[in-house]
Amino acid sequence: MPTTIKVALDWTPNPLHAGFYVALSKGLYAQAGLSVELISPSADGYATTPAKKLSTGAVDFCLCPSESVISYQSSADASARIKACASLLSRDASAIVSRTASRPAELVGSGKKYASYGARYEDAIVQAMIDIDAGGKGKAGQLETVVPPKLGIWETVVNSKGECDSTWIFEPFEGVQARRAGHDFTTFQLGDYGIPYGYSPLIAFRESSVNESAYKSFLAATGQGYEIAAKDPSEAAGVIREAMLEAGLSERDTDLEFLKESQASIASYYNLEGGFGKMKSEVWKAFLGFLEQQGLQKDREGRKVSVTAEQLFTNALLG
After folding, report:
1. Contacts of 186 (CB under 8 A, 6+ apart)
2. How far apart are CA 83 and CA 76, in angstroms?
3. Which region among 78-92, 112-126, 181-195, 293-307 has the lowest average model confidence (pLDDT)?
4. How many percent of the chain have pLDDT more than 70?
5. Residues ≥6 apart with Cβ < 8 Å to 77
6. Mean pLDDT, residues 237-249
7. Is the predicted pLDDT of residue 89 greater than 80, yes or no?
8. CA neighbor of 219 nearest in space, from 29, 1, 25
9. pLDDT band at 299 (very low <50, low <70, confident <90, very high)
């Protein structure tokens, strides 16, 4: 009998996930003696975060940002702690975009609103970028945020009503969509403002429940899937398109030519050099240092927490 592995995705199927779906379509998981179930957050309307599903033991792995790992690693309940075991991307592929601002300090004021995902540290990180650009905390003003439904966030920025002026995007997806549609957005990279965002998204596991052999097999097969996707983005685009159609995504999101361009773009970000998913301690330390500097290393009750890079990630399951 194959070993069942459940994975909570961070978003509906898209080119970021191509390696998983390629591994499924090529039978790589089956060859490794695994039955892998990829769970979209849309299955429960994004009610439960992937990290929460993992922390409660509902799944074996989840995709989540560094912030989630930091948050759950500081949990008083040791059984709920999660740890990163692979990074899908070698560097940050996200950015803040705006319809009207020419610099981060202009993201505030004049009724401007930021469309937020309501993610851990998200609004504080964007505010930090504004403060850094303005030359000091509070000099530009306070970011005004709204939290639309997850799948409607991009629409609040691109639609004709102009409900929101800015949001956080994944460049190989929404960034490609924006260029193809001729949207004239200004893009702000966090790293350009001294914010070392680190690894995101990550594959995380629960430390208190590890099937070492199965987990290593899963990560090895997943790595093979991402290597195939990187070598042939066009084929990978076709595979992920099938998954997206099955998930009921829009015609715009599942346009094959768009997906080919998106897949080719994201392939350059895949973390494959030196072996799939491997992370560096200095990247984690830099992000932790930024959070400490900004006074953000707190739990959800606002209490200060202290975690180290060594507590947050391991490469041990990557072989």
Report:
1. 97, 98, 101, 102
2. 15
3. 293-307
4. 98
5. none
6. 96
7. yes
8. 29
9. low
CA distances from 78 to 42, 58, 206, 272 (A): 28, 16, 10, 31
| The one-letter amino acid at 40 | S
CATH assignment of 94-193? 3.40.190.10
Give the single-character DSSP code of 304: B
- Helix, strand, coil shares of the chain, percent, nearest 5, are 45, 15, 40
Ranges of each domain in the chain: 3-90+198-318, 94-193
> What would the two tokens of residue 82 be?
């999660």
> Residue 88: what residue type?
L
Same CATH fold, 94-193 and 3-90+198-318? yes
Q: In this structure, what DSSP letter does residue 143 have?
A: P
Q: Strands (DSSP E) along the chain, which ranges?
A: 3-8, 34-39, 61-64, 82-87, 94-98, 114-115, 145-146, 166-170, 186-188, 202-206
Q: Specify the pLDDT at position 300.
A: 64
Q: Are strands 145-146 and 3-8 parallel, antiparallel or unpaired?
A: unpaired
CATH topology of domain 3-90+198-318: D-Maltodextrin-Binding Protein; domain 2 (3.40.190)
In degrees and rounded to multiples of 5, residue 86 shows phi and psi of: -165, 150
Q: Check whether 298 has a pLDDT greater than 80.
A: no
* CA torsion, ordered 15, 198, 215, 9, to nearest 10 deg: -40
Bridge partners, residue 94, by sequence:
170
